[in-house]
Amino acid sequence: MKQPRRLSFSRIALLxxxxxxxxxxxxxxxxxxxxxPGSEEPPLAGAPIGGDFALTDQDGxxxxxxxxxxxxxxxxxxxxxxxxxxxxxxxxxxxGLKSFEAENPAAAARVQPVFVTVDPDRDxxxxxxxxxxxxxxxxxxxxxxxxxxxxxxxxxRVYAAKGEGTDSENYLMDHSAFVYLMDPDGKPITYFERDxxxxxxxxxxxxxxx
Length: 210
Hints:
Blueprint: H1 9-32, E1 54-57, E2 62-64, E3 72-78, H2 85-103, H3 105-108, E4 111-117, H4 125-132, E5 140-143, H5 146-155, E6 160-162, E7 173-175, E8 179-182, E9 188-192, H6 198-208
Parallel strand pairs: 3-4, 4-5
Antiparallel strand pairs: 1-2, 1-5, 3-8, 6-7, 8-9
Helix pairs in contact: 2-6
Family: Belongs to the SCO1/2 family.
GO molecular function: metal ion binding
Domain Thioredoxin: 29-210
């Protein structure tokens, strides 16, 4: 009879830490969603989301939290090799911004869409340049070293990890999937979930972008 395969202590600890991080993110976001329509308090006011980071864009330039100051940001963490979820999410984000641009071009010009990879090993500068061009002309794609991406993930309270049964070339990434709206100082305003379509994103931008 085959003996059941045992997980190493380090593997169990890693899975437990990832699960705790993901539960914490969902708990905070669920508690932070606006309770009453018309409230002027941003849903994520005071949330520990966002802050300093230093990454590389699709043109090889360095982008930091400070270099984006003065602009609202729509921020999504994903990866270009994602077969389904990420392209759909980024398309919703881009379509929502385009709708807002049509209604209020001046305000929309202050919104910077940002895609941050959670898969820096494959999402090189060249790969991201091709990926972001498919969605919006102003979309920034950010990558970096593993350490730099990990730091950005921690800053934005994003969970991401390689899926089971991976190899060095072909694998999926498990990750949280929210579109954050950040204010011109890089502080969180609200977030959009997968069920929020492009029209809801456009409405959110119209509500919060001044």
